[in-house]
């Protein structure tokens, strides 16, 4: 009796296990939902999805959504291939349905390529229907009169579906818009004209075709705010004046150094000449002695020379009265 009960329990447990495994590998209710929705798919195909590690609960609802939206070009094999490639099946199908409702030309191949490129294809379709507004950071530029202006702009863009693959992103658009604002303000004669007509910046920037090669189409550029910054021209003139002053001081210091060097050189030459004179005067007594011995100089000639020398000294002392006391001057005159 007990053996029969255990046998029945094991049989029931095995049956339950088989049923669980069957419904796991063969999602019957998902197949039934697909059939009711008009999607042609078999239980064998669902079983093979499990074998290929493709979740049927991702592929089949996407097929049902596409069939209900009238997108008959989307196939099961295409969805499986996109999933195995690492794509987002749900976002691709949502994007295709939204594009079809908005009359936007978007094929399955293009949608899967955009998704595999790392962009959100569903968000791109939404941006094509509802344009996005991008606020630029403050852009600083200087007009020709030297006044600095700080501008903020709002860029309205729409996704360009055909250029989403390989097209530049928002950062490139913002950089180009900033460059256009700097160029526009820099070409203005004065900052007052920019403040009076800020729309001139928008018109000039839009004419440059800044959205070329990007994933967006620029619809409008609006200048939200313009503030006056520093007087850059005055700062530059002050810096130039300081630089000229430093150059002039350096040249003056160079001339002074040259003058000091020349003075030192002249002093050295004077000292050398004075040394030569002293040396020459030291040779005079020897020359006189030689003259006495050779008979070229007599006693009377010697005294006459001494008188002339005394007379010369007296004349020099008279010419320089400050170098003697009054008593000395009177004695010299006597």
Structural key phrases:
alpha+beta, 334 residues, disordered C terminus, single chain, four-stranded antiparallel sheet
Describe the structure.
By secondary structure, the chain is of the alpha+beta class. The protein has 14 helices and 4 strands. Strands 1, 2, 3 and 4 form a 4-stranded antiparallel β-sheet that branches. β2 and β3 form a beta hairpin. α2 runs parallel beside α4 and α9 packs across α11. It starts with a helix and ends with a helix. The C terminus is likely disordered.
What's the quick description here?
The longest helix is centred in the last third of the chain and has 63 residues, at 232-294.
Number of helices: 14
Structural class: alpha+beta
Helix content: 55-70%
Helix-strand topology string: HHHHHHHHEEEHHHEHHH
Q: Tell me the total number of β-strands.
A: 4
Proportion of beta-strand residues? 5-15%
Largest sheet: 4 strands, antiparallel
Task: Tell the overall outline.
Answer: elongated
Uncertain runs are 327-334
Question: What order do the helices and strands come in, and which of them pair?
Answer:
Layout: H1 2-25, H2 28-37, H3 43-51, H4 56-68, H5 76-84, H6 89-101, H7 108-116, H8 121-129, E1 132-135, E2 139-142, E3 147-159, H9 170-186, H10 191-196, H11 199-206, E4 216-231, H12 232-294, H13 299-319, H14 326-333
């Amino acid at each position: 009796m007990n053996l029969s009960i255990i046998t029945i329990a094991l049989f029931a447990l095995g049956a339950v296990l088989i049923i669980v495994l069957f419904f796991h590998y063969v999602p019957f209710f998902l197949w039934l939902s697909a059939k009711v929705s008009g999607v042609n798919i078999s239980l064998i195909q669902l079983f093979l999805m499990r074998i290929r590690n493709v979740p049927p609960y991702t592929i089949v609802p996407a097929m049902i959504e596409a069939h209900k939206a009238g997108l008959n070009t989307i196939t099961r094999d295409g969805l499986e291939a996109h999933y195995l490639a690492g794509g987002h099946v749900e976002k691709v199908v949502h994007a295709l349905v939204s594009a079809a409702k908005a009359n936007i030309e978007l094929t399955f191949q293009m949608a899967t390529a955009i998704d595999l490129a790392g962009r959100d294809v569903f968000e791109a379709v939404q941006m094509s229907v509802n344009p996005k507004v991008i606020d630029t950071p403050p852009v600083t530029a200087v007009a020709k009169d030297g006044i600095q202006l700080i501008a903020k702009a709002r860029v309205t863009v729409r996704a360009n579906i055909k250029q989403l693959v390989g097209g530049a992103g928002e950062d490139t658009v913002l950089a180009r818009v900033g460059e256009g604002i700097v160029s526009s303000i820099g070409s203005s004669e004065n900052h007052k004209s920019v403040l009076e007509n800020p729309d001139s910046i928008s018109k000039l920037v839009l004419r440059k075709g800044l959205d070329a090669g990007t994933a967006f189409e620029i619809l409008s550029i609006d200048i939200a705010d313009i503030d006056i910054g520093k007087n850059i021209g005055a700062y530059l003139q002050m810096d130039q004046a300081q630089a000229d002053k430093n150059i002039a001081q350096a040249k003056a210091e160079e001339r002074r150094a040259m003058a000091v060097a020349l003075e030192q050189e002249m002093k050295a030459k004077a000292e050398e000449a004075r040394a030569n004179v002293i040396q020459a005067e030291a040779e005079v007594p020897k020359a006189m002695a030689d003259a006495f011995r050779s008979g070229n100089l007599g006693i009377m000639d010697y005294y006459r020379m001494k008188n002339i020398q005394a007379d010369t000294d007296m004349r020099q002392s008279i010419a320089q009265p400050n170098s003697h006391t009054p008593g000395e001057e009177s004695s010299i005159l006597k």
